[in-house]
């Protein structure tokens, strides 16, 4: 009986650890590489756990991405503080049931990393980049998108 309980405990711990998403530490060049190497269109969203507009828009981003009949990837790039990586970000993602891949940008010099995304981006979040390399489509938004705006932009990305 004790062995059965031990096996059940080990199995439940293994499943729980698999359910928690691993948050990778990246540089902006890594983010761009992920987007460029994707076989499907990509939406790169820059956000933070402390950003109200960011956490307001992520649920509809995920809703439409996961309901899409065409494949599309949503990459959530956290701009949280160093002390929040990885525990606070992972706990926040789990609490909010985020399903998308999350990475943490370990760069702090916006003057260096923002122009790599778009020449107009000054570092404000939320910000989103839509890329469909098969179509040569690239569109940047340096602001929060509403639910209807996101749906329109997703359709444009995928058509």
TrEMBL record:
A Pfam family recorded for this sequence: AhpC-TSA
The organism's taxonomic lineage, starting at the top: Bacteria, Pseudomonadati, Bacteroidota, Chitinophagia, Chitinophagales
Matching InterPro entries: AhpC/TSA, Thioredoxin-like_sf, Thioredoxin_domain, Thioredoxin_ResA/DsbE_sf
Protein name listed in UniProt: Thioredoxin domain-containing protein
Keywords per UniProt: Signal
Signal sequence range: 1-19
Thioredoxin domain boundaries: 4-159
UniProt-listed SUPFAM superfamilies: Thioredoxin-like (SSF52833)
Organism: Filimonas zeae
């Amino acid at each position: 009986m004790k062995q059965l309980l031990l096996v059940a405990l080990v199995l439940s711990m293994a499943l729980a650890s698999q359910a928690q998403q691993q948050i990778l530490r990246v540089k902006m060049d890594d983010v761009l590489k992920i987007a460029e190497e994707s076989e499907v269109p990509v939406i790169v969203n820059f956000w933070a756990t402390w950003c109200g507009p960011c956490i307001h828009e992520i649920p509809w981003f995920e809703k439409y991405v996961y309901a899409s009949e065409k494949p599309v990837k949503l990459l959530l790039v956290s701009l949280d503080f160093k002390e929040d990586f990885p525990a606070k970000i992972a706990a926040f993602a789990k609490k909010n049931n985020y399903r998308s891949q999350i990475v943490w940008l370990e760069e702090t010099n916006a003057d260096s990393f923002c122009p790599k995304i778009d020449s107009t981006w000054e570092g404000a979040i939320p910000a989103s980049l839509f890329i469909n390399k098969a179509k040569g489509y690239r569109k940047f938004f340096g602001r929060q998108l509403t639910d209807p705006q996101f749906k329109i932009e997703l359709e444009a990305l995928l058509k």
